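Shift notes (night). Ran glycerophosphodiester phosphodiesterase while the centrifuge was going.
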Amino acid sequence: MLSFTSKTLILIIDLVTRAFPFALSVSSINTHARKKPGVESLTGFAPFILLFLVVHCTARPLYPLPSRNTHGSRQPLQTFRPFNIAHRGSNGELPEETAPAYMRAIEEGADFIEADILSSKDGVLICFHDVFLDNTTDIAKHKEFADRKRTYEVQGVNTTGFFSVDFTLEELKSLRANQRYSFRDQQFNGKFEIITFEEYISIALDAPRVVGIYPEIKNPVFINQHVKWANGKIFEDKFVETLEKYGYKGSYMSKQWLKQPAFIQSFAPSSLVYISNQTDLPKLFLINDFTILTEDTNQTYWDITSDSYLDYIKQYVLGIGPSKDTIVPIVNNYLQTPTDLVARAHAHNLQVHPYTYRSDNNSLRFNFSQDPYEEYDYWINKIGVDGLFTDFPGTLHKFQEWTSSKSSHDSDNKTASELLHIIANLVSSYKRT
Ligand SMILES: *[C@@H]1O[C@H](CO)[C@@H](O)[C@H](O)[C@H]1NC(C)=O
Ligand SMILES: *[C@@H]1O[C@H](CO)[C@@H](O)[C@H](O)[C@H]1NC(C)=O
Ligand SMILES: *[C@@H]1O[C@H](CO)[C@@H](O)[C@H](O)[C@H]1NC(C)=O
Ligand SMILES: *[C@@H]1O[C@H](CO)[C@@H](O)[C@H](O)[C@H]1NC(C)=O
Ligand SMILES: *[C@@H]1O[C@H](CO)[C@@H](O)[C@H](O)[C@H]1NC(C)=O
Ligand SMILES: *[C@@H]1O[C@H](CO)[C@@H](O)[C@H](O)[C@H]1NC(C)=O
Ligand SMILES: *[C@@H]1O[C@H](CO)[C@@H](O)[C@H](O)[C@H]1NC(C)=O
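Came back to this:
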């Protein structure tokens, strides 16, 4: 009786995914522009609206994403498999930490969108990775800022460049983001602006399914040296206040958390301890490469991965976020014997979310035959991690979907009434657009 072939269904879903999310993104952007005094108009977003059209027409998903919710309420966060954490958005494709990079990550199936939080000179929290603007913006082209170049000590190293802490938000908004790596697609350079922490949160809250946020308290020692807030508030206070303003609260897996999932991350253990009595949101302690000291407490890699330290830090954090090369060391681009870090963290009941997974051929270890799926298979099924920070959330999502017994079972077993429901929703969303 249902004469729809699966091809017809995919075609209809395709048409709707082109029309409907686009309408969604425009209306949500509109609301932010009105809510946020700092964002003057829609015009700054015009390029990414255009991009959105392009992306939707050329890079359509091959299967209905979880975001294509057809049952009224938003599809919940998946909690049955390791978390797909979109590192700086879908930054393998689009300039990192920009609105299009985050929207693309959501479209591609990320569970969490990840951001580095820094501050402008006037104390507005922004999404940006480096403390200086040089490597990922067009600051070099802005002659009006030529005299802003400074040298500051950053984590014990004198660093020269243009620092975000010397620019107001309005000035930062006049810059445009660039792709960090020359071996990646450069066509979106100069098109998208830097976004604030609040704009990033709005992107997650407006997603058509539940998408978590994963903000980092980035370079807190440096930020607190250079930026001062009213009433003696510090960076960490403003960070938690922003999360609370948008309703982020609750411990891991609580009802409130599942509604608006968030992980807080930092390389600075004292920041995590400091906020521990301000929010019960789950926190992850990031662990840098073997040779790097913690920026706040000057501890070595060996100090902070000892059993006694894991015992201490587990009072404050849900897990650790180590560089993946400290879990499986690399020599000449070959994997060596894995360390016991994952086993010891799990023995302390700590989750492990390593960073960073990249599909670029120059990032893949020779053991993986230039195949990112082999890398995910190794880390998920052999090493057994609980979350993965990836520059290519679409690749990780496809790997997880195509190897998940749950999802294939679901898609092969749609009842006729479920199919009718989907079609009814497609028709009504057409009427709306
Ligand atoms: C920024 O670019 C410079 C010059 O290409 C490079 O040496 C440096 O490692 C980059 N820094 C970061 C944080 O990417
Ligand atoms: C950075 O430069 C200043 C001024 O030249 C100097 O006093 C300081 O020792 C330098 N710091 C480092 C870590 O090199
Ligand atoms: C939070 O903890 C700090 C020290 O860890 C303490 O000084 C402060 O009083 C605590 N604040 C609250 C509200 O419990
Ligand atoms: C860490 O080292 C820096 C510079 O070497 C020093 O200024 C700072 O006081 C040290 N911090 C701690 C907690 O020992
Ligand atoms: C990776 O390749 C190297 C070199 O062939 C080999 O020694 C190592 O055991 C391999 N590791 C894994 C996990 O396959
Ligand atoms: C990656 O691919 C590029 C472009 O094809 C090539 O120039 C480069 O040598 C490759 N790098 C590695 C490590 O395979
Ligand atoms: C398909 O779904 C029905 C009803 O939900 C269930 O009873 C049945 O076991 C499922 N079949 C398979 C092969 O999973």
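Residues 84-418 form a domain with the TIM Barrel fold (CATH 3.20.20.190). The chain has one domain: 84-418.
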